[in-house]
Amino acid sequence: MSSAYLLKEIFYQKCSNILIDPPYFYMNQNTRKTDEQLVAASLKDKNTFAELVQRYEQKLSRYIKRLTNLNSQSVEDILQEAFIKIYKNLNNFDPTLSFSSWAYRITHNETLNYIRKHKNRNTTPLETDNKDLANLIDILESDTNIEAEVAQKEIAKKVRLLIKKLPKKYRDVIILYYLEEKEYSEISDILKKPMGTIATLLNRAKSKFKTLALKHNIVT
């Protein structure tokens, strides 16, 4: 049984008062609605929320993994709590804003809450794959000349370690901008900081990352 299926079942059992019918998760929907339309529909028909879960579970799970290095069960626990909180707060969602940013912000906060509650666990970010890290390297390449002869996997490993070394405020923006590919406005909504602050943090994060990359001979 897949972890995604288990998550849906756990979510269903814990929120039995929401009355989402589990098979609804697996229905093939021919008409793709916007997130905001699904939110509005979910307020009238609780089953519709299943579409939002299906649409965002992989994205949010990946984001949690990038913020931490928790095991799969812990990631699913956080994801479950995030979806529960998202559902319970649908009435407070402002339809003029991005649902994606709102969902990421709730997930971000739930991840931080989990880490605070489990301080003894190893929750040092960053868990991601080589392809994503290669993408970050490619983005930075315009400003730093990465040695072509260095094996891509070795670079990815070093980059992962370097991101771990960044202070949390810089890790957050690096992950959201380069790995999650969020716009400044979205990052602003997720982290609840002004866009000017986000721009400053991102510039400083990039500068610190380059300094570390030079120090560790990833760039020349």
Write a structural description.
- This protein is an all-alpha fold and 220 residues long.
- The chain has 2 domains: 3-117, RNA polymerase sigma factor, region 2, helix turn helix motif (Rna Polymerase Sigma Factor, Chain: A), CATH 1.10.1740.10; 130-215, Orthogonal Bundle (Arc Repressor Mutant, subunit A).
- Helix content is 65%, strand content 0%.
- The longest helix is centred in the C-terminal third of the chain and has 21 residues, at 195-215.
- The radius of gyration is 19 Å and the shape is globular.
Which helices and strands, and how do they pair?
Layout: H1 3-14, H2 35-44, H3 49-67, H4 72-88, H5 99-117, H6 130-140, H7 152-165, H8 168-179, H9 184-191, H10 195-215
Helix pairs in contact: 1-4, 3-4, 3-5, 4-5, 5-9, 6-7, 8-10, 9-10
Percentage of residues in helical conformation:
55-70%
Number of separate helices:
10
- Taken as a percent bin, the fraction of beta residues is under 5%
Mean pLDDT: 76
Number of strands: 0
- Give the assembly state of these chains: single chain
The coarse silhouette is: globular
The CATH superfamily of the largest domain appears as RNA polymerase sigma factor, region 2, helix turn helix motif
CATH topology of the largest domain: Rna Polymerase Sigma Factor, Chain: A
Distance between the first and last residues' Cα? 47 Å
Q: Segments where pLDDT lies below 50 for 5+ residues?
A: 16-30, 124-151
